[in-house]
Amino acid sequence: MTDPLTQYKLIVLYMLDRVDFSLTKAQIFDFILDKGYTNYFTLQQVVCELIDSDLVSSKSVRNSSHLSITEDGRSTLSYFGNRISTSIKDDVNVYFKDKELDLRNEVSIQSTFYKTTGNDYAAHLVAKEKKSDLLDITITVPTEESASHICENWQKKSQEIYAFLIEQLM
User: What count of Cα atoms within 13 Å lies in the side-chain half-sphere of residue 158?
Assistant: First the structure.
């Protein structure tokens, strides 16, 4: 029998291995906590240990951590993945079948803003597909409020904006 922390690590690795894009820590936590597999604090420890042991990589994007499985993580999963119960694997697979498009959209549309050296604000907007950038735009505006508003709207309107640009440029 696998100890609980190892079991939770394997679940996280299994989730990250099932998708071809990064997942946010919040997305992983939502699934695992919703299923009642463990509590928040244990899950936080699990993710930190996976990152510390280089089985998972973490990248901060705006106010979220995007997690991806590393080659060492894949190798570990290939050796120990059989220790995850079939019912848990089924739960993960059903979750991705039902929510993959939403999960993918949530991590493929990225935005952040920062203060420039000229005391303006730059809104950096990215639309990704798999590991490639489809669109990468930086817009400079005079206020932090405007930059924040642009980033929020990018999340809602990126597909329309991308389609508009393609139509205008083709």
Answer: 23
